[in-house]
Amino acid sequence: FLGSVPTKASGTERAASVIGQGRIEASPLAMAGVAASLANGRRVTPVLLPDSKVAAVPTAAAPLTGAEATQIEDMMRAVVTEGSGRFLTDVSGGPVAAKTGTAEYGNDAPPRTHAWMIATHGDLAVAVFVDDGESGSQTAGPLLESFLRQAG
Question: What does the mean pLDDT of the chain come to?
Answer without folding.
Answer: 87
